[in-house]
Design a protein that fits this description.
The protein is α/β, with parallel strands linked by helices. The chain contains six helices and 13 strands. The strands form three sheets. Strands 1, 4, 5, 6, 7, 8, 9, 10 and 11 form a nine-stranded mixed β-sheet that branches. A two-stranded antiparallel ribbon has the order 2-3. Helix 1 packs antiparallel against helix 2. The protein binds 1-O-pyrophosphono-5-O-phosphono-alpha-D-ribofuranose (PRP) and uracil (URA). The site of uracil has 10 residues, from helix 6. Pfam families: UPRTase. This is Uracil phosphoribosyltransferase.
């Protein structure tokens, strides 16, 4: 299921990302800020357990996150831009990496790297990537996590095309997708319209 995270701060920051004049420096900063806001929402239902503690004043009970917690998996390159923002909110998360680029002719993902934490089966694994276009990259990344034993997977994308959401929902109906905005469509080159351009190039100043 796909869920749009509605928040005035996210809307404001997304507009900054979309503007073509926004520098790479500001783009990087704002991607991380939106990632942190989305991390808060995506982890809203983490299970907690009651623990007994002592404050400097008196014994009391508090809540702590239960179990092995969270793993974050950026899809390289552009997903890297969201990692720091996520770690601001969930600093103890493990970080895996999946390297993938989209072939410009076929628009199919080509995987060139995968390094995941050993215990993915015991963690909530959150894939981060600013763009969900055709959905090919995210479907392949979810396949890779499942091959490695992950059972609890979520995806966080800043911007999605309806076509991509549909493709991922069909391939992996068990994976919840969180997005900041859904745009109109893809163009003939597989770019989201109106979108924000090439997220990797804008983050890292390449072209
Ligand atoms: C972008 C983006 C996604 C992918 C989305 O990566 O970061 O990973 O495209 O497209 P899809 O939904 O059609 O698969 P890109 O291939 O440009 O690689 P990069 O991050 O290295 O620039
Ligand atoms: N990848 C991007 O970086 N931008 C798009 O619009 C589509 C795929």
């Amino acid at each position: 299921m796909a869920q749009i995270i509605n928040h005035p701060l996210i809307d404001h920051k997304m507009t900054i990302l979309r503007k073509k004049e926004t520098s790479s420096m500001e783009f990087r900063q704002v991607v991380n800020e939106i990632a942190a806001l989305m991390a808060y929402e995506v982890t809203r239902d983490l299970e907690t357990e009651e623990v007994s503690i002592e404050t400097p004043i008196a014994p009391t009970k508090g809540k702590m996150i239960l179990g092995k917690k969270v793993g974050i998996v950026p899809i390289l390159r552009a997903g890297l831009g969201m990692v720091e923002g996520f770690l601001t909110i969930v600093p103890s998360a493990r970080v895996g990496h999946i390297g993938m680029y989209r072939d410009p002719e076929t628009l199919k993902p080509v995987t060139y790297y995968s390094k995941l934490p050993k215990d993915v089966s015991q963690r909530l694994m959150i894939i981060v990537d600013p763009m969900l276009a055709t959905g090919g990259s995210l479907i392949e990344a979810i396949d890779e996590l499942k091959r490695n034993g992950a059972t609890q997977i979520r995806a966080v994308n800043l911007l999605a095309a309806p076509e991509g959401i549909k493709a991922v929902e069909e391939a992996h109906p068990d994976v919840d997708i969180y997005v900041a905005a859904v745009d109109e469509r893809l163009n003939e080159h597989g770019y989201i319209v109106p979108g924000l351009g090439d997220a990797g190039d804008r983050l890292f100043g390449t072209k």
